[in-house]
Amino acid sequence: MSDDTNRQAAPDDPERRDVLKFAAAGALGAVYAGLVGYPVYKYLASPIEKAAAETVVTEMVVEGGAALPKNAALMFKFGAKPAMLIHHEDGSYSALSAVCTHLGCTASYEPDQKRIFCACHGGVYDALTGANVSGPPPKPLTAFKVQVTDGKIVVRRA
Ligand code: FES
């Protein structure tokens, strides 16, 4: 028997060290590729997903909207984005996007002050029109058309 066939790698064998270095580099490369690749994938894929979600929904029935008491709001999803239906004291309705025009936080209706408030930076909007009233929001909330048909609340893009 020769020495080569019975030879086992010793822990400090340079050949074994190279194999371990190669495996560690491969694992590190895979982790790095995941860390860099996933955000890039999400960045590139998200506009397509968003566009698909936005183009599909132009009109919808707000479930539970007809049962909404006065001076109350109901949050719902219009496509992929949060929106709110507000039933005003005079019996009218308004439907607005709930995505704050400042940095995109979700705004909500405050019945005690009859306003829409974004808690992220104190943005205030008019509950009837969605107009930006105070704080950092640079423009109004998107308003939708509201129609009451056969006891159902239908919301559509204006
Ligand atoms: S994100 Fe709404 S006020 Fe800043």
How is the CATH topology of the largest domain named? Rieske Iron-sulfur Protein
Strand order of the largest sheet: 1-10-9-4-3-2
Overall shape: it is: elongated
The chain-level mean pLDDT equals 86
Strands, total number: 10
Helix and strand composition category = alpha+beta
Our count of domains comes out at 2
Strand percentage: 25-35%
User: Terminal Cα separation, in Å?
Assistant: 88 Å
Order of helices and strands: HEEEEEEEEEE
Number of helices: 1
Q: Helical amount among residues, as a percent range?
A: 25-40%
Radius of gyration: 28 Å
The unreliable regions are none
Describe this protein's structure:
Helices cover 27% and strands 31% of the residues. It has one helix at 14-56, and strands spanning 59-61, 72-78, 81-87, 93-97, 108-110, 115-118, 123-126, 132-134, 143-149, 152-157. The strands form 2 sheets. The chain has a 6-stranded antiparallel beta sheet, with no helix packed on it. Strands 5-6-7-8 form a 4-stranded antiparallel beta sheet, with no helix packed on it. A hairpin with a 4-residue loop joins strand 5 (108-110) and strand 6 (115-118). The longest helix is centred in the first third of the chain and has 43 residues, at 14-56. The model has no long low-confidence stretch (mean pLDDT 86). It binds FE2/S2 (inorganic) cluster.
Summarize the structure.
The chain is of the alpha+beta class and 158 residues long. The protein has one helix and ten strands; from the N terminus they run H-E-E-E-E-E-E-E-E-E-E. It has two domains: 1-56; 59-157, Rieske [2Fe-2S] iron-sulphur domain (Rieske Iron-sulfur Protein, 3-layer Sandwich).
